[in-house]
């Protein structure tokens, strides 16, 4: 048989790899060990706080220190809530009011401003956005004196309005929402809504907000935690008030010539519980928002 008469062999099929999702590489024992050790180091301060909050005065000062929780947690809490000059229960309520109001306001105004900067074209938008970004470089401490004077002129010092109103919108929130809306909301979708006769506010409410729910969850959680943990400005503006926020109340527990650490850490543990609940509820939303923001082109 000549070369011309030999049958042609069918070409070998190459394995189709294009478009196939990459396989997940299983993590080794070293990775899990490292994560476990990191988690233990991160959780140890909370555990130690609970141990001291459940102990007696003798147990908090003994050497070697106690590492097992005691049985006086409810008794220590009763002492904390019974103090007449701290108003710890009212301070927790005030923190809930302030953190909730500030978070709701930041989500509303920052998402609205971020949508305007991302999808609306108006004169001076770039310069105004640059000014918003530059305000992030200014420390908050530089404006406390001027802010205190303004709150005094309005007669708000010593009230919760002085804590809520200055935090109703943040430069970080505007910048974060603007960056997310730029990629999450297509321009074609907005144009289609305009053709259907939707107004700008209707487009923001029905088109933009549903598309940026992960970003709203992340911003809301970060704002709630930051507002709850804020100490300096509530301490200044609520100085002398009978109903401060929780962080100021915890500092009042630690004031005096003799500090009773079981009281201080019992109050600190109670003030930390709402943050832990928020992180457990919104932790998945944080991961989702970060991942969706990372894969945007």
TrEMBL record:
Cellular component, GO annotation: plasma membrane
Membrane topology of the entry: Multi-pass membrane protein
Cellular location(s): Cell membrane
Gene Ontology BP annotations: transmembrane transport
Gene3D superfamilies in UniProt: MetI-like (1.10.3720.10)
Domain of life: Bacteria
Transmembrane regions listed in the UniProt entry: 29-50, 86-115, 127-150, 156-176, 203-228, 260-281
Keywords attached to this entry: Cell membrane, Membrane, Transmembrane, Transmembrane helix, Transport
CDD domains: TM_PBP2
Positions of the UniProt region annotated as Disordered: 1-23
Family per record: Belongs to the binding-protein-dependent transport system permease family.
Name of the protein: Sugar ABC transporter permease
């Amino acid at each position: 048989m000549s070369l011309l008469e030999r049958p042609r062999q069918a070409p070998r099929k190459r394995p189709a790899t294009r478009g196939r999702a990459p396989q997940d590489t299983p993590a080794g024992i070293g990775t899990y060990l490292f994560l476990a050790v990191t988690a233990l180091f991160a959780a140890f301060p909370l555990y130690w706080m609970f141990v001291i909050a459940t102990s007696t005065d003798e147990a908090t000062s003994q050497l070697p220190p106690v590492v097992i929780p005691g049985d006086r947690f409810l008794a220590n809490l009763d002492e904390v809530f019974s103090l007449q000059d701290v108003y710890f229960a009212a301070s927790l309520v005030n923190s809930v009011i302030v953190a909730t109001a500030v978070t709701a306001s930041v989500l509303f105004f920052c998402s609205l401003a971020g949508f305007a900067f991302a999808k609306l074209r108006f004169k001076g938008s770039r310069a105004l956005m640059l000014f918003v970004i530059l305000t992030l470089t200014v420390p908050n401490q530089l404006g406390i004196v001027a802010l205190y004077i303004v709150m005094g002129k309005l007669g708000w010092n010593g009230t919760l309005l002085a804590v809520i109103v200055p935090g109703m919108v943040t430069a970080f929130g505007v910048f974060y929402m603007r960056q997310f809306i730029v990629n999450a909301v297509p321009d074609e979708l907005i144009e289609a809504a305009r053709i259907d006769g939707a107004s700008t506010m209707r487009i923001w409410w029905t088109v933009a907000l549903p598309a940026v729910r992960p970003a709203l969850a992340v911003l809301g959680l970060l704002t709630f935690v930051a507002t709850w943990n804020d100490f300096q400005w509530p301490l200044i503006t609520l100085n002398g008030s009978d109903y401060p926020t929780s962080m100021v109340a915890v500092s009042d527990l630690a004031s005096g010539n003799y500090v009773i650490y079981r009281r201080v850490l019992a109050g600190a543990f109670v003030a930390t519980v709402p943050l832990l609940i928020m992180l457990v509820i919104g932790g998945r939303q944080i991961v989702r928002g970060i991942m969706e923001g990372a894969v945007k082109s």
